[in-house]
Amino acid sequence: QQQVKQSPQSLIVQKGGISIINCAYENTAFDYFPWYQQFPGKGPALLIAIRPDVSEKKEGRFTISFNKSAKQFSLHIMDSQPGDSATYFCAASGGATNKLIFGTGTLLAVQP
Amino acid sequence: ETGVTQTPRHLVMGMTNKKSLKCEQHLGHNAMYWYKQSAKKPLELMFVYSLEERVENNSVPSRFSPECPNSSHLFLHLHTLQPEDSALYLCASSLAGTGANVLTFGAGSRLTVL
User: Fold this and answer.
1) Given B2, B101, B104, which is nearest A100 (Cβ)?
2) Is B105 exposed, middle or buried (0-12, 13-18, 19+ CB in 10 A)?
3) Contacts of B43 in chain A (CB under 8 A)
4) What pLDDT digit, counting tens, does each position of A33-66 carry?
5) What value does the mean pLDDT take over residues B8-30?
6) Is A5 exposed, middle or buried (0-12, 13-18, 19+ CB in 10 A)?
7) CA B83/CA B81 separation, integer angstroms
8) How many Cα atoms within 13 Å fall on the side-chain side of residue A41?
9) Gap between the Cα atoms of A91 and A101, Å rounded
10) How does pLDDT run across A61-87, given as a tens digit for each residue?
């Protein structure tokens, strides 16, 4: 019940296309859903986050869509650029421990 | 530069060696974490220190020994490791008690156990 399931494992998108990464969770106590971006040789960095009181959050080309009833949330990258090529991790936290639980990551390659 | 610095960036050690990983943050954060990152696995939380007190130890083998002498420094002491311990070890910090659990990660220490 503590897992966050992330898909796909890897994704190839053409420049200008839309990248979509999906995550699902079971624990209804989760109330904070961040996405982290990791470039090679770097640690993960917070990209965007959402709380369950809204269904969508947009920051520039990055949008989180949140479906509370389905217990799913996704990251959409509009107009994907080669510089977006990185590994993306979804995560969730909430409940008694407030511990961040991470997904397995998605390796995104944006081809020029 | 995120404000969380990890050294060394790369470490190769034999199974009988003793080594330490170091993490330093000057962000004014009061919680520090060790994570293990292995290919195709979720980031695994190993240890959490909040206000210099260990508050979480996720069933990590005793061959990993954390130390947090103050709120800016965190160590992971390694001894008699196994080849399966080879991974990227990430340090992170956060400001506990602010509601959102926002972590700032270092670049990691790549550990290879021969």
Assistant:
1) B101
2) buried
3) 44, 89, 102
4) 999 999 999 999 999 999 989 999 999 999 999 9
5) 93
6) middle
7) 7
8) 1
9) 5
10) 999 999 999 999 999 999 999 999 999
Query: Taking CB atoms and an 8 Å limit, are A99 and B43 in contact across chains?
Result: no
* Residue with the two structure tokens 């220490």: B109
Contact B41 A9 (CB under 8 A): no
Q: Which of B29, B37, B110 to mutate to test the interface with A (most CBs of A within 10 A)?
A: B37
Q: How far is B45 from chain A (nearest CA, A)?
A: 8
Question: Do strands A56-59 and A30-38 pair parallel, antiparallel, or not at all (unpaired)?
Answer: unpaired
Q: Do the Cβ atoms of B103 and B92 come closer than 8 Å?
A: yes
User: Rounded to an integer, what distance in angstroms lies between the CA atom of residue A100 and that of residue A95?
Assistant: 10
- What tokens appear for A25 in the block? 């969770």
Confidence of residue A1 (pLDDT cuts 50, 70, 90): low
Residue B56 to residue A104, Cβ atoms within 8 A:
no
Q: How many CB atoms lie within 10 A of CB B21?
A: 22
